[in-house]
Design goal:
- This protein has 299 residues and is α/β, with parallel strands linked by helices.
- The strands form two sheets. It has a nine-stranded mixed sheet, sandwiched between helices. A four-stranded mixed sheet has the order 3-2-6-7.
- Helix 1 runs parallel beside helix 8, helix 8 runs antiparallel to helix 9 and helix 9 crosses helix 11.
- It is globular, with a radius of gyration of 17 Å.
- The structure holds adenosine monophosphate.
Amino acid sequence: MSLVIIGSLAFDTIETPLARKEKIVGGSGTYCALAASYFTQPKIVGVVGEDFPQEMMAYFEKRGIDLAGVKIERGKTFHWEARYGFDPNQRKTIRTELNVFKDYKPVLPPDYRQADIIFLGNVDPDQQDEIVAQAERPQLVAMDTINLWINSKPASLWKVLEKVDVFFANDEEIKMLTEEINLVKAGKKILSRGPSFIIMKKGEHGALVLGKNFVFGALAYPCEKVVDPTGAGDCFAGGFLGYLDKINSYDKASIRKATIYGSVMASFVIEDFGIERLKKLSTLEIKKRFDEFKKLVSF
Ligand code: AMP
């Protein structure tokens, strides 16, 4: 089995009501791959500038992540700045500096083309489309996005959506994309265009999975300590897809379990800034929290 992740490898500047962190390592690809690495050995596709820390590359490798698809270009690494209010679900993007990502043409190395699962993390939808075109026989294509692309490239986004099986998005993004205020109606509109499942991420309220004749709800883990919500969505995707890659099954029962593993991974990353919590995470903690989730919803 193999999971290929295209996403950003980034520097993030994050401001919360309690602290500000300048240029810490982040990126949709970074978060997703680290979360998935607890289940499988993911392969990343992306680009960094010469300023991206070598220790980070070494850490990816230590976690079994394949970096053959990561290009190092002259110039600066992608930089994103965001501010959170007291409500962790409310985030404002202050700036997006694409830098080396701007003219990046993603290329799948030959052994990546055979991947079973492709995750099109949050990057320009035209870049996502180029990746889908290079994959030879994916069993599952999943995709994420962000409001920047919904506003600036809606036509490109819909074009990619038609080729994906699983679409991850938060409720605000879903409503914006479909111009619907009711989430279920909005979800059905997207399902009618191609995807088999939409994973509607609802921040601290959990996730709702909508498919054709399928609906599944997962609570978010009741976290007391929410330090930095960045990466929750990507870690959700990493846990979800990493688990599916590990078990090599895509039936409805597997989708339900994968949703819980996604929620588990998201619940950890928000406990500290950037990737700090992931760096200390053990498989035993993941198992324990998965079991707690089971108790949370059984009655
Ligand atoms: P999440 O909190 O899961 O939605 O993901 C946040 C991550 O996405 C951050 O680490 C950012 O570096 C990255 N990100 C934000 N905007 C973009 C963008 N337009 N393109 C690629 N990556 C982005």
